[in-house]
């Protein structure tokens, strides 16, 4: 460390008066007489360092209020907490959607509290720093609770809530009233758990919150407090027939928890009221920050010219070349002129229509707030609309509005105004996802037709090199699709005899490997019908990778297939990288590209949905819903792919992303005209766009014209 030498104790620690410590490097030493033992590292550094999640919330409910007050809690504040569970004695036959319920089997209040504390310690005691316990007739401001725990030290034993005196007890001993919720630290929970059984047998009480408070005081000597480390736990007790909108008391406005909430409607009204308060505070903070930015801008090197609009939002993205220019999408109130399917014009509907309507409404609101009472604007027509997504700041809009302006005296005038708006990117949230591992076995399914025979050898070679040689946990099943004419002659001439011979050679080379095949006779190889056959022959927990014969299997992609596919949660449809036709791209030149530019001469084929990763159980569930919808109309399946089944009948997350680890060599696909018009059209587009880039095609046409002219 700079600054000269320091006095240190004999053992190397800093001497008296020094509060910082000098790091020491401990050399690694392994005893040669002891056998080597591999060190198992945790998957995440957070686990190894002992980090905990911040807050766990437990809501005490009952069978009588589960479908009313508990549902209201779930709809108002549950999504603000990272983890929330509902605890009850007895459960009803049907649990409300979206609620995680733990039933203890006994409605006695003390027993419910005892079992809840025991359950929290057993399942979450080592994962969270703070535990907030509330009742379903309590309205808690979730953001305030989360802010509260960020200002408290996790090293202290905390029992924080609305402190109440015991009836006929010591004035110094107080318990936390359960109706207003209370906060317990992890250290307190760990110390309390060994005494829960004694408390259950020795302490008699009618109220569960009194019982818990007495238990904590008797065995740990820690009373409930309403103020700790400079933080106050503000509460408010609601009177009967209270009107939240008319309550103006400062105590009510600052309340962190409100009790008692008698019905669902009151819960929603409280939530609306406090949400409005928080929203007004947020807008006021934004205005204050914008004013500070304006005042400080003059002191910066760029001066006032460096002030961006809107104030506080990132400046627009500045492209460095014409290839980085973000294009604007043109729209009117009825039509969009940049459609997802590539068509030049489509009807404005759904989320896009709602987005445009909201932007126009917001523009009028801003104009009226700025010019009233002198002028009042109303919309006549949207003349032109433009929007684009800027990844550095959000969605930008430019509107040409035909407005009618009315003065205070009633005179009206029609004028056109151009307004600009920005919908800024909000706070980024991490979406919780179930934990998956890379040890899952992948079952590859490869459908083969007669047109695919020329590419099978390369597929099997890549499969053997990247999975069998590396002992990857992957299996392969071949699906031979016979045309009815070929199926009749299979005893004389088997069109797949060569493939079966190659499979036999692989099984001889790898004695522990078996590659089964399934033979199917059909004129129209529907992806869904083929998958139905394969699904019935595998367990429900099988992870399928539906491959194509041009796919080059590698371990990197198989691991991403495992990680991106989550049972009962998400399916994965990768977009493979398709190499261009080398005859058009290289025109006789060297075709081998360098290792760093292996994705150079090609494109990601967004028209292909042939590859997919999903669990058999998820497919069977979606397929059952599809069967109930189409009844016996099997011809509908010929116009569908597996992607359509999951999209319309699963309710799962469909993860569609480019996959650089899935590279396919160029090949002209055979498009079956007997499939649906949409599937055939996508196949033709895939072939056409896979020929070459525009520059390569232009060069080929130029050379052809040069040759013809000479």
From TrEMBL:
One of its GO terms (cellular component) is Golgi cisterna membrane. Coiled coil: none annotated. Gene3D superfamilies: 3.90.550.50. Residues 1-23 are annotated as: Disordered. Belongs to the chondroitin N-acetylgalactosaminyltransferase family. Its EC number is 2.4.1.-. It is an enzyme of class 2 (transferase). It is found in: Golgi apparatus, Golgi stack membrane. Residues 8-23 have a biased composition (Basic and acidic residues). It is a single-pass type II membrane protein. InterPro entries: Chond_GalNAc (IPR008428), CS_glycosyltransferase (IPR051227). Its main location: Golgi. One of its GO terms (molecular function) is N-acetylgalactosaminyl-proteoglycan 3-beta-glucuronosyltransferase activity. This is Hexosyltransferase. The keyword Metal-binding does not apply. Pfam families: CHGN (PF05679). The gene is Chpf2. It comes from Eurystomus gularis. The keyword Glycoprotein applies. Keywords: Glycoprotein, Golgi apparatus, Membrane, Signal-anchor, Transferase, Transmembrane, Transmembrane helix.
């Amino acid at each position: 460390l700079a600054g000269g030498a320091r006095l240190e104790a004999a053992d190397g620690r800093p001497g008296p008066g020094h509060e910082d410590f000098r790091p020491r490097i401990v050399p690694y030493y392994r005893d040669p007489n002891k056998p080597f033992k591999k060190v198992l590292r945790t998957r995440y550094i957070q686990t190894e360092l002992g980090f905990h999640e911040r807050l766990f919330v437990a809501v005490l409910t009952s069978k009588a209020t589960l479908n009313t007050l508990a549902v209201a809690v779930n709809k108002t504040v549950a999504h603000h907490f990272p983890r929330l569970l509902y605890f009850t004695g007895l459960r009803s036959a049907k649990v409300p959607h979206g609620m995680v319920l733990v039933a203890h089997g006994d409605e006695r209040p003390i027993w419910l509290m005892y079992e809840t504390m025991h359950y929290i310690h057993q399942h979450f005691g080592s994962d969270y720093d703070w535990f907030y316990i509330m009742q379903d007739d309590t309205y808690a401001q979730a953001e305030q609770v989360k802010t509260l725990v960020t200002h408290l030290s996790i090293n202290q034993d905390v029992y924080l809530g609305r402190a109440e005196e015991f009836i006929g007890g010591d004035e110094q001993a107080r318990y936390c009233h359960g109706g207003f919720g209370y906060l317990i630290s992890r250290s307190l929970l760990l110390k309390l758990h060994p005494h829960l059984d004694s408390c259950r047998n020795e302490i008699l009480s009618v109220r569960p919150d009194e019982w818990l408070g007495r238990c904590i005081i008797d065995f740990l000597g820690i009373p409930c407090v309403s103020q700790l480390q400079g933080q106050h736990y503000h509460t408010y007790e609601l009177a009967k027939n209270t009107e939240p909108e008319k309550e103006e008391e400062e105590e009510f406005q600052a309340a962190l928890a409100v009790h008692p909430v008698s019905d669902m409607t009151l819960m929603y009204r409280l939530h609306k009221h406090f949400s409005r308060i928080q929203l007004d505070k947020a807008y006021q903070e934004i205005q204050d920050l914008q004013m500070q930015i304006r005042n400080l801008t003059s002191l910066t090197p760029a001066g006032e010219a460096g002030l961006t609009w809107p104030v506080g939002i990132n400046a627009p993205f500045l492209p460095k070349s014409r290839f980085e220019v973000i294009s604007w999408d043109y729209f009117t109130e009825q039509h969009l002129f940049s459609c997802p399917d590539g068509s030049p014009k489509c009807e404005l509907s759904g989320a896009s229509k709602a987005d445009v309507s909201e932007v126009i409404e917001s523009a009028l609101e801003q104009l009226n707030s700025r010019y009233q009472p002198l002028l009042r604007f109303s919309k006549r027509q949207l003349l032109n609309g433009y929007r684009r997504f800027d990844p550095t700041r959000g969605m930008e809009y430019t509107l040409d509005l035909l407005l009618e302006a009315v003065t205070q005296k009633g005179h009206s005038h029609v004028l056109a105004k151009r307004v600009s708006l920005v919908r800024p990117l909000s706070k980024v949230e991490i979406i919780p996802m179930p934990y998956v591992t890379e040890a899952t076995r992948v079952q590859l399914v490869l459908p083969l037709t007669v047109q695919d025979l020329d590419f099978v050898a390369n597929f099997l070679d890549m499969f053997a090199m990247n999975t069998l040689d590396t002992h990857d946990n992957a299996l392969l099943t071949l699906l031979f699709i016979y045309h009815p004419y070929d199926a009749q002659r299979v005893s004389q001439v088997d069109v797949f005899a060569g493939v079966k011979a190659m499979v036999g050679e692989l099984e001889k080379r790898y004695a522990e490997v078996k590659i089964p095949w399934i033979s199917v006779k059909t004129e129209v190889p529907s992806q869904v019908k083929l998958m139905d056959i394969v699904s019935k022959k595998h367990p429900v927990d099988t992870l399928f990778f539906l491959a194509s014969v041009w796919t080059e299997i590698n371990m990197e992609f198989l691991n991403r297939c495992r990680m991106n596919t989550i049972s009962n949660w998400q399916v994965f449809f990768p977009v493979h990288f398709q190499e261009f036709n080398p005859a058009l791209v290289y025109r006789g030149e060297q075709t081998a590209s360098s290792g760093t530019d292996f994705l150079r001469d090609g494109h990601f084929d967004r028209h292909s949905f042939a590859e997919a990763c999903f669990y058999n159980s998820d497919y069977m569930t979606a397929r059952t819903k599809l069967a109930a919808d189409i009844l016996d109309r099997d011809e509908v399946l010929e116009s569908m792919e597996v992607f359509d089944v999951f999209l319309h009948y699963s309710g799962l997350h469909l993860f569609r992303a480019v996959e650089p680890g899935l590279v396919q060599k160029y090949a002209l696909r055979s498009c079956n005209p007997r499939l649906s018009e949409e599937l055939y059209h996508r196949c033709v587009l895939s072939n056409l766009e896979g020929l070459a880039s525009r520059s390569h095609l232009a060069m080929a046409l130029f050379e052809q014209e040069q040759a013809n002219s000479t």
